[in-house]
Write a structure and sequence with these properties.
24 helices; 6-stranded mixed beta barrel; single chain; 804 residues; alpha+beta
Length: 804
């Protein structure tokens, strides 16, 4: 067969398909839905596994020191020691933990994330710069020249991608800071999202960052991870024996590839994404195999006639191949568009769960990547479907079938195969829907349960007062009082309060002991009475702080019920505690009230101590942010513009950040659960849609093949509702068989996800019952249209020998 014959057959097949595009559109829609959702999942997994955008990324490592199994960060002395291991590391650098700053680049101030790193951090990682240079030795010294390096994203969004920014200055916390560089990609960092700004660390003995640093290094030539870990541990142990002769601390060292350290703890997320993507692709594959098989049965008589007239087997397969190419073209293109539309939402979900992908953002966001993955997945899926249907195609094209073929009939083997694929689709859909409903119910229950506070009609925001503008304790207190007075003057505000830490985040850790009692660690939370009133946290015993106690820095505290149960006996009110902060400083406090437990840190109440926010130790934490809440009267909305305008009159140099309804916040432990719930909900909805399309196609073809049978049944007295019930019950039997097997798959998937979702019960009877109802309802709706067509079959059709 020459090329012109093949081209002619392809063209004729394409023309026929385009004149009646129903099959191509249905198969293309199936491919677009399954592959379109799987593509961004695979793109994220591939991006997470892609090498960091650094020279020799496998030589960049994170170095963590563990004391008695805890820790990970290093202090200044330990860093200096690591820097001397020249035979192990070519260069060792450190960064502080993430911070924020008020930044004004010719616009209104905004809070921007920043990371302080030393010059050796940049030399160790060697991130590529788009413009400019790294920090100079002078800029990294205490009191050195000011300098900032911008991330690529910040440069584009806030400075409109200006190419002449080097040498210009931006206002960072009230200080004009020259721009010395722009990164080509986000700076790889641990413990937080990629920073918008990079500032010099300027490490010195009294530095506020000297006690908690993140160390990275570049391995010396020929040094492996294992060798670096062993050598570093041995040398650090020898050093510890000199400074701690009593051996109170057992030192171990972790030397990990930097990428592994940055993505620590999200391996299960990758596995989950692969499982969901794989199940969707399998569901799509089974649907396409079924559709192509049904298409073969519809064309069986035509193929048999052509085979009897002498057409070769390959020539008879060309129409199927041509339609498959159209399906790939339509389906893959639509899948790529679906993928590109879903991708930003998926990345936002991951980032809301503190899984930040900024260092690979250009790769993730590239449209070409979505098109390539969608095209490859689409081509692979359709090719496998075509190969799996090849046996039926060849059989349908056999000349010996001509005399046995009746136009529109369906042979028993193909009918059994189609029913089998419907059951497979039901199994996969049941698994994904069951997983989605189990996690969704657990997530809903976690949100709906009482958290120990009332966040309705409450709004929250934060201010970050820099030291350059508010150097004294009194300055910070005056700012807080001015802001609170401004908030309380707004129409509709019933209460307003302040805390020095975010409600959903990390609290201050301090040593604590009862007078004459044991020493332990407890979380400290500095607040005022208005904060507690705004959140309506119930007072179980005692009272809140008085205004006089706050203004006079009185040595008082409140605790929650979990604190009392763990540390105290009897009536807690009036008991004295001693807290020990940094160094040997101690402070005696008297408990004046006991509050209800809250779940802002964990799903179960943990011991908390509340201090007056004006306490000197608490005021120091204002450097990390002042966190305000205000409760409005029911039905009164917040005018964000008015609020920001009033706050600008009080502190024009500060950015009003994270202004949102309090209910939009979520505890850290619920963010991952929410992300997984959204992801599986999308997958479950798509699985239902694809399974419904598959069942509809099979039922429609089966009804067409049995048209004459339905006519005979109608002629001998079968009522329309009996024909309707006959078809519906057949479809529901197939769905039911899939439900029985799919329930086991759903339980298996849910059990594997239980470690990722707090509070998820892998055997949730409500979720299983709802899964069955949803699948049965979907099967009923998918079979309803073919069943109605069967019920309307006239008795005269039984006289037509050519009818199905």
């Amino acid at each position: 067969m020459n090329f012109s014959v093949i081209a002619h057959e392809l063209w004729q097949s394409w023309r026929a398909s385009l004149r009646r595009p129903g099959f191509v559109l249905l198969a293309g829609l199936t491919l677009a839905l399954g592959v379109g959702f799987a593509t961004p999942l695979l793109a994220v997994v591939l991006a997470l596994g892609a090498p960091l955008p650094l020279p020799q990324p496998d030589r960049a490592v994170a170095v963590e020191l563990l004391f008695n199994g805890y820790g990970g960060a290093v202090n200044r002395s330990e860093y200096k020691l690591l820097s001397d291991f020249h035979d192990v590391y070519r260069s060792v650098g450190v960064s502080a933990f993430p911070q924020q700053a008020n930044v004004s680049a010719g616009l209104a101030p905004q809070l921007a994330s920043l990371r302080r790193v030393n010059r050796k951090y940049l030399l160790a990682l060697q991130p590529r710069l788009l413009f400019g240079r790294y920090f100079s030795p002078d800029e990294d010294r205490p009191n050195g020249a000011r300098a900032v390096i911008l991330s690529h994203r910040y440069w584009q969004r806030r400075l409109a991608g200006q190419r002449d920014v080097i040498g210009k200055s931006i206002d960072i916390d009230g200080v004009q800071t020259p721009i010395v560089g722009v990164l080509a990609r986000a700076l790889p960092v641990m413990a937080g999202k990629p920073p918008a700004l990079v500032l010099p660390l300027r490490l010195y003995p009294g530095s506020p960052y000297a006690h908690s640093l993140i160390a990275v290094a570049r391995l010396a030539p020929g040094i492996s991870y294992q060798h670096a870990r062993v050598e570093t541990t041995a040398r650090m142990v020898a050093w510890a024996k000199r400074v701690d002769p009593h051996g109170r601390y057992r030192i171990t060292t972790l030397v990990l590839p930097l990428q592994q350290a940055m993505l620590y703890g999200i391996g299960q997320i990758e596995v989950m994404a692969l499982i969901v993507a794989g199940l969707l692709v399998l569901l799509t594959l089974s649907n396409l195999v079924n559709l192509i098989t049904l298409r073969t049965q519809q064309a069986k008589y035509h193929l048999s006639v052509r085979a009897a007239l002498g057409a070769s087997a390959f020539r008879l397969l060309i129409p199927a191949i041509a339609e498959s190419l159209l399906i790939v073209l339509v389906g893959a293109a639509t899948a790529a568009l679906v993928s590109m539309a879903l991708h930003p939402a998926l990345v936002s979900l991951l980032e809301a769960s503190n899984i930040h992908l900024g260092f690979n953002a250009p790769t993730l966001g590239a449209g070409a990547m979505q098109w390539i993955i969608a095209a490859l997945l689409g081509l692979l899926t359709v090719t496998l479907a075509l190969l799996m249907s090849l046996r039926r195609l060849r059989r349908g094209a056999s000349a010996q079938q001509t005399l046995q073929s009746t136009h529109g009939t369906m042979d028993p083997g193909a009918s059994r195969l189609s029913r089998g694929f419907v059951i497979v689709q039901s199994v996969l859909a049941t698994g994904l829907v069951g997983l989605a409903l189990t996690i969704g119910i657990a997530s809903h229950d976690a949100v709906a349960q009482y958290r120990g506070y009332d966040g309705h009609d409450v709004y929250a925001f934060q201010l970050l007062p820099p030291h350059a503008l508010y150097p004294q304790h009194a300055d910070l207190l005056q700012l807080s009082r001015n802001v609170l007075a401004t908030l309380r003057a707004i129409h509709g505000v019933r209460a307003a309060g302040i805390a020095s830490l975010p409600w959903f985040g990390f609290s201050e850790m301090d040593g604590i002991r009862r007078l004459g009692g044991r020493f332990d660690q407890v979380d400290m939370y500095p607040v005022d009475g208005g904060y507690l009133r705004s959140l309506r946290i119930p007072m179980l015993v005692g009272r809140a702080f008085t205004r006089a106690e706050i203004q006079s820095d009185a040595p008082v505290a409140m605790v929650n019920r979990a604190f009392v149960e763990r540390y105290l006996k009897g009536n807690a009110v009036g008991q004295d505690l001693t807290i020990q902060g940094g160094g040997s400083s101690t402070q005696a406090l008297r408990i004046v009230g006991v509050l209800h437990d809250t779940d802002n840190y964990s799903p179960h109440g943990k011991p908390l101590m509340f201090l007056p926010y004006s306490d000197p130790a608490a005021v120091r934490t204002f450097r990390s942010g002042m966190h305000f809440v205000l409760r409005l009267q029911p039905g009164v909305g917040l005018d964000a513009r008015e609020l920001k305008a009033r706050l600008r009159a009080v502190a024009p140099e500060l950015a009003v950040a994270d202004l949102r309804a309090f209910d939009q916040n979520a505890p850290e432990f619920q963010k991952l659960e929410s992300m997984i719930a959204h992801l599986t909900a999308w997958a479950g909805a798509l699985a239902l849609t694809i399974a419904a399309l598959g069942l509809y196609a099979v039922m429609r073809t089966a009804v067409s093949a049995r048209t004459r049978e339905f006519g005979i049944r109608a002629a001998i007295g079968a009522a329309p509702h009996e024909l309707l019930a006959l078809v519906l019950l057949a479809g529901l039997r197939w769905i039911g068989a899939g439900l029985l097997i799919g329930t086991g798959l759903a339980l298996l998937l849910t059990r594997s996800e239980r470690a990722l979702v707090l509070g998820t019960n892998w055997l949730n009877l409500h979720a299983l019952l709802l899964t069955w109802l949803v699948l049965i309802a979907t099967g009923f709706l998918a079979a309803l249209a073919p069943a109605l067509r069967a019920a309307r079959t006239p008795p005269t059709v039984s006289l037509n020998e050519s009818a199905g």
